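Cont'd.
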Amino acid sequence: MEYTSSVHMIMRSLSDCGSSVANGSEEDMEIRKGPWTEEEDSALLNHITTYGLKRSGKSCRLRWLNYLRPNVRRGNITLEEQLLILDLHSRWGNRWSKIAEQLPGRTDNEIKNYWRTRVVKQAKQLKCDVNSKQFRDALRYVWMPRLMEQIQAQGRSTMCVSQAREIVNPVTSVSMASSKSCSSFSGCEQFQASSSVSDSCVSYYSLMGSGSGGGSSERAEKGATSSSTPFEPENGFAGADFWTDENIWFLQQQLADDDHL
DNA sequence: AATTATCACAACCGCAACTAT
DNA sequence: TATAGTTGCGGTTGTGATAAT
C-alpha cells in the first residue's frame, strides 16, 4: 500500500471520528492575533481582578492547551497510539507537535512525556542510545510488529476479519522474520520489498478507528476533580502497556542474537 | 510508620518562527 | 523592511503519587 494513501486513510479516519476533537469549538471561535485592544486588556484586567490569578500568560496558555482545552484526551496511551507514536517518531523524530496532530486529543507534551518516560527508559535499560541505529531498527523490526501482534491478540478490533488479514499479514510475517532469520534488523530485504511496517501501522491504525482508543481518565480513577473529557473510548485498550518485562526480555534476546551474528 | 527511591505527568524556560503594524 | 508583540516548539525541571526499604 502506498504511503500516501495510508496517510490519507488515517487522516480520513481521524476526521471521521475525531474532527471535533482536533478542531472543535476552537476553530469556530474567531482567534485574534496581533496587539491587544483596549477592550481585551480591560477584559483581562477584570478577570485578573476578579479571580486574582497570579499566573503568567504563558503559564495560562500552557494550562489551557494541555489540560483545560475542550476534548483534551487523558489517560493511558493505548497500544494503537503507542504504535503510531513509534512509527511517526521514526519518520519525524522529536517533532512532538506534528506527531500529536495525528493523535486526536493528545498533546505534544503528553507524547513527549511518553517517549521520554517509556521509550528512552527502555533504551537505557537495554544499554542502547535511543538514537542509535540498533535501537531504532529494534523498534521498527521487532517491537512494532510485536506491538501489532498484541493489538491483534486483544481481539477487540472493530475492523472486519478480511480487512484485518489484508493489513496485518505482511506485518506478522515481518515479526516472524525478525525473530529468526534476519541477521541484521536494518539489512533485511523482506522489510523493504513489500509494504513497510510503517505503512502497515498507519493503515492498520486507521482501520482500527484511531479515535476509539484511550483509557478512562487516570485522574478520574484517582479521584481527582478534573472534568472528564467527552472523548471516551468505546473499544480501546485502556491501561494497556506494551513495555512489559516479557517484551523487554524478548527485545534483549533479539539484540543479543543480533550481536552474535 | 517513617523514610527514601522511583516513576509519570505537569509545568517552566528559552528560543525561534510568525504576524501585524 | 524593521520592529515589537505573540505564538509555538522542544528540552528540562519540578511535583505528587506510589513502591520499596
